[in-house]
């Protein structure tokens, strides 16, 4: 469900009923400075994108290296083996020359994305070619690619800084040469939505084939420009997961698709409930973290702290949320701090399984605000500790506790961990080894009798302030016996914070397992 403005109906007139999603995370996204994916990682992302429902996966630029060509071949093979009529089209990038095209086609892809720069800047300084030479090269490349039996999408690189009459001349020529789609790249992100809408409307009016756009985010307008293009009749847009890409990145898949669905009522093949899952996968494999305030899939996208906002959301989510978080694979979080009101504290205490008295709520509020005034972030873990201290454990006692623990690591030493745990009142000691201190602690916990086997699917560490003595906040997500749980820990010792986060998530899993068992008896 979405709670959006009726005024958006003004922008919906004339837009296509359905828009194709061309994902270039594995090509333009990998050009993000500092990002380098292995072949297996690319395949994992490609399979996730296919499951997400993108129409086209641009798998790479095969001419750049043998490793890149091999990755494109493996992605094409992997997706081709998926038994589904709705699988994604696999595409490879190629410059407008026969060698590039041959290597791309021989990678086993379904389509080729052929490009050549058309702007005066590129013609003079990069290509050193005349308009006539650029036009001839574009036509020859499209004709040759079509002769190889693949779908062809043609891009006029730096289209938004190209003379309009020449741009239209090039597009009409490649259409005649057999191109299946044309693409308008805003290569350095200099367009405004009004200008993009005008440009796309002019191109659409001159062509019979579908028009696509590829917007960069140098001025933060990539999504806005892509939406403006759709308003003007564009039937496809190039996007990347988490907005990755060169410089400031590309149009964000998550923001663009959610906007299409909820603000324009435009359909795509995307399963929006998988947006967060794919975002997290790409975040993990690229090492580029999504900012907390990132729209749709950022940690704070559906988080609330202000007392007025929390009160409203608890009464009706639409008061301060434009759509339900579950619709995009997210969950609502009530963040506690100095702006927190009574409703938020009562709700958070109730979710921890406690039935607090009035004076206990007041004391919990006082402590939360005190932490906030001192600049300390009140995480879910810290809040749980406050509640346990105030209420005294008369309800909701944790099933798993670790009293003593020791981690040994160093040069030429296999990291190891020893823990003394209490599970259901039993005192158990356990050892574990791993590739690092956190892995060793995880393995020590796995060895404790009574703890369910679990897999760590996400680990995130953030400093809460500056300095080497800053408290570290650790967030983990674990999976165990079909149950997914998140855990939080905070400490100046990041190993301790990691252990607290693991214990937090394991206690949630064990509580869920116990609840499930009680329901079935």
Automatic annotation (TrEMBL):
Q: Which Pfam families match?
A: HCS_D2, HMGL-like, LeuA_dimer
- Supply the EC number(s): 2.3.3.13
Kindly state a single biological-process term from the GO annotations of this entry.
Answer: L-leucine biosynthetic process
Q: Does the keyword rRNA-binding apply?
A: no
Which Gene3D superfamilies does the entry mention?
1.10.238.260, 3.30.160.270, Aldolase class I
* Location of the Pyruvate carboxyltransferase domain: 19-276
Query: According to its UniProt record, which reaction does this protein catalyse?
Result: 3-methyl-2-oxobutanoate + acetyl-CoA + H2O = (2S)-2-isopropylmalate + CoA + H(+)
EC category: transferase
The UniProt record lists the keyword Transferase: yes
UniProt pathway: Amino-acid biosynthesis; L-leucine biosynthesis; L-leucine from 3-methyl-2-oxobutanoate: step 1/4
Specify the superkingdom: Archaea
Recorded hits in SUPFAM superfamilies, A to Z, give: 2-isopropylmalate synthase LeuA, allosteric (dimerisation) domain (SSF110921), Aldolase (SSF51569)
**Which UniProt keywords are listed?**
Acyltransferase, Amino-acid biosynthesis, Branched-chain amino acid biosynthesis, Leucine biosynthesis, Transferase
InterPro entries to which the protein is assigned, alphabetical: 2-IPM_HCS-like, 2-isopropylmalate_synth_dimer, AIPM/Hcit_synth_CS, Aldolase_TIM, LEU1_arch, LeuA/HCS_post-cat, LeuA_allosteric_dom_sf, PYR_CT
Name what cofactor the protein needs.
a divalent metal cation
- Molecular function terms, GO-annotated: 2-isopropylmalate synthase activity
Per UniProt, subunit arrangement is: Homodimer.
Read off the NCBIfam families from this record: LEU1_arch, PRK00915.1-2, PRK00915.1-3
What the record says about family reads: Belongs to the alpha-IPM synthase/homocitrate synthase family.
* Protein name (Swiss-Prot/TrEMBL): 2-isopropylmalate synthase
- The protein's organism comes out as Candidatus Korarchaeum cryptofilum
